[in-house]
Amino acid sequence: MISVEAFFSAVLAGMIYVLVPGPATLATLSLNATRGRFVAFQFLAAHLVGDVLWSLLALLALVGVSRLGPGLFDVLGLVCGLYLLWLGGKALFGSRREAAPLVADPVRGGLVFGLSNPKAYPFALAMLTAIIGTQGGEITLAAAAMLLAGCLLGFVIADFIVLFWTGLSQVRRVFMAHGAVITRATGLLFIAFGGKAIADSAAAIRAR
In this structure, are residues 35 and 104 in contact, taking their beta carbons and an 8 Å threshold? Predict the structure, then answer.
């Protein structure tokens, strides 16, 4: 078993992972403002699948069951980058004059965002390695399950925090009043995120 301190460290790490703003946060904001909290909830619930999967794979690597090669994350980086470029292009060059969601299908979009994130596995691996280090560097399957439960709890708490603040009436009012400008600005950010993901992956591939 793991200590209570390690469990709550996993909870906190999961919360930090979700609460750091990124493309998924921007997508949640646009969905919440234009289509309501339930649709934004669907997006975050689908995104949670990717968060849990990458944390599980990181834990399996730490207990020696499996280990993923870096080549996979280079490919994921390219896929994620291209997807963000596509979304950013739609938002930036679309003909809309009013607020519109950046993601048409919340479930499919959440799954793609969650599963194609090239930084999720390395982050989870580093985060969990640090937590396990406080336990003497050894971990059993039972302890790994407890850490995964802690991460899951952190993800869920943070998702509800994101769902809450992106659905505040003041936030939605600002988004709806300046939706076209915000959507295009978000499109620029998506293009920047996508370009960086592609550049990082291409550099890693060339280095090999």
Answer: no
